[in-house]
Amino acid sequence: MILTMSIEAKSAISKKSIIMNGFACDNRALIFSQNSKFKFHQYRQMLKHQLNSIFRVSLLLALPIVLLFPISANAQFPRFKPTTVEYDTAFLNRSPSKWSIRLYSVSKYQQFKVNSRSTDASLKYAPNKFYGTGLGVSYNRLNLDVGFNAFKSRPHDDSEHESRAFDFIGSLYSGQHLFEIYLQQSIGMFGWLNTTGDIIFPVGDTTIAYREDISAFNFGVDYNLLFNSKKITFGSLIGTEIQKKSAGGVLAGLFFSSYDLHADSSIVPAEYASIFEDHSEFTDAFVFNIGLSGGYAYTIVFPLHIYLTLSLAPGFSLSRSELKSHDEWYVAGHPVNLSFKLISRGALGYGGKKVYGVLSLVSDRSFLNISNKNYFMQDIGKLKLVFGYRF
Predict the structure, then answer these.
(1) Distance of alpha carbon 32 from its chain centroid, rounded?
(2) How far does Cα 86 stand from its chain's mean position?
(3) Contact 238, 203 (CB under 8 A)
(4) 7, 80, 159, 347: which could join 360 in a potential S-S bond, CB 3.0 to 4.6 Å?
């Protein structure tokens, strides 16, 4: 079995980062400090509500998946054997070296939006972005990187406020299997209001004052099965394996996530509530979804060992949303909503025998219906640049 795993962990307290090639954990900002206004009882209640909601809706949402994949009580499963995965050596080199050293830089982002279908207005909130850099060493396909937070973004040119966050984005590559795990907690966010309907390149955004009261917790897992893994690898995304010839493969997968949002006052400020629909003035939201995805991945190999990997996997899910508006909880969906997800991955790299480098991007967007005229968009991702030398 070929296994690639990487872990990244950063902290604004220690200014350190630890990475092992595939799982990525990034504690991008200060979570606990003497001066922080961390409301323990508030998050205890949030966690209690979240666990209760997951318990109540998980069986309901998982039922369609179980019906799609019935399992006989007498079914026999093949025993797992950790043998080496066969691959076409004319297309791949899964073990280009035993040791390598590397420099890296990484940035992770997360944000959420409340969007109106009728007015095209959108309200976006996001914490500070933190950028890290460091050194690493790899043994076969396992990397260990150590770094620090070099600098952070200053939305609205605001040097006074700073988000407190824990941001874990992990990737596990094992042959034709790809797992990505998200675990994020953010406290305090900056806001933008867009009324032009231009989502990709918004113009004329109105800034919203820093909201210390907004907190969000996100947990999710994405799984993808890569067909034709004998000729194409996800290892090109992190530089540990070499793609010799162009090849592609179909993706199939499943995913689930839970998102818990809390604020002391309405997420949509009262002065802008008129451009959104009913139920937009909510203070709490819990969204749980589960679904299936499918797509395609392709790596183009150019001369001089340069390659480009692109992957796109759209998916559909059943989502259950519970929101609190004017001190009353209500359920969006009867009992669930059909929602949409888009997972994209890309890498531009150089895969030489000794020197390698790769710029990779992972983006995960979920479009979750919370009412007939409003929807909630969750956007998370990671951008990483690596330069390495093989021994």
Answers:
(1) 23
(2) 30
(3) no
(4) 347
C-alpha 178/C-alpha 353 separation (Å) is: 25
User: 3: number of CA atoms within 13 Å, CB side?
Assistant: 7
Q: Closest Cα partner for 359 from 303, 314, 306, 298?
A: 306
State the DSSP H helix or E strand holding residue 360, giving kind and residue range, or none if neither. strand 355-369
- The amino acid occupying position 374 is N
Cα–Cα distances (Å) from 289 to 38, 364, 374, in that order, read 28, 14, 17
Of 150, 162, 149, 200, nearest in space to 35 by CA: 162
**pLDDT (0 to 100) of residue 3:** 39
Count of positions (residues) in the chain: 391
What CA–CA distance (Å, rounded) separates 83 from 273? 59
> Is the pLDDT reported for residue 222 higher than 80?
yes
3 state DSSP class of 268: coil
Triad 117, 256, 166: Cα angle to 5°: 90
In the three-class reduction of DSSP (H, G, I as helix; E, B as strand; rest coil), residue 359 is classed as strand
Q: Return the H-helix or E-strand segment holding 336.
A: strand 328-351
Whether the per-residue pLDDT at 60 is higher than 90: the answer is no
Helix (H) or strand (E) holding 55, with range, is helix 40-68
More confident residue, 8 or 212: 212
101: which DSSP letter?
E
How many beta carbons lie within 10 A of that of residue 64, not counting itself? 15
Strand partners, 368: 376
Say which DSSP state 90 is in. T
Q: How far is CA 69 from CA 72, 306, 340, in A?
A: 10, 41, 21
Please name the residues in contact with 199: beta carbons below 8 A apart, sequence gap of 6 or more.
122
From residue 355, how far is each of 3, 4, 54, 350 by CA, in Å?
22, 19, 47, 8
